[in-house]
Amino acid sequence: MHFLEILPSLPFILEGVLVTLKFTTLSLLCGLPLGICLALCKISHICVLRSIANVYTSIFRGTPLLVQLSIIFFATPQLTGYPISAFQAGVIAFSLNSAAYSSETIRAGIQSIDQGQWEAAKVLGISYKHTMMRIILPQAVRNILPSLISEMANLLKESAIVSIIGEADLLRRAQVVAAEKFLYFEPLLIAALLYFLMVSVISYFGKRLEKKLAYA
What we know:
By secondary structure, this protein is an all-alpha fold. It has one domain (8-214): MetI-like fold (Orthogonal Bundle), CATH 1.10.3720.10. The chain is built from nine helices and no strands. The longest helix has 33 residues, at 10-42.
């Protein structure tokens, strides 16, 4: 073991944690609202909206995330002339992909709510918009919270893929240190432990939130 040789590079690796967390947070903040919109389109009575949402989901769930990331990063400059950064490409790709997966979870959560609540709201003269936003969605989110927490944890783990296009995230920094020191086990093990720690923290607070909502 040569952990003492890696010790001077530890701050450099730890900076990657902030990059990974920033990347994951932005992707989640962008992907979740889009996922909600897609879920609403899937249960809409408008055929065109349902078709668009279903086609979108099929494309992003039916192709590898790495391919999506590569297309956005390498093809965008060719098609638009805009030199997109690795971080921007990663956030866009992960947001679009996460939206496709979360939309199915949210749709299932909405449809799990008893139909009687829709009917009661309709009798009381509450509009569809207010019924959805104030009655149905809050209950749906409570029901699917474990799945959303799991999606966030998966998003964080899969964020390591952005190292392929050169983004200086946690894995990329560990690889840089490994190449400089000619030691691969130690920096990669540190990266693995840091990923495990971040996922564990997400799971811990997710379970606490779930218990709190269960007693609310």
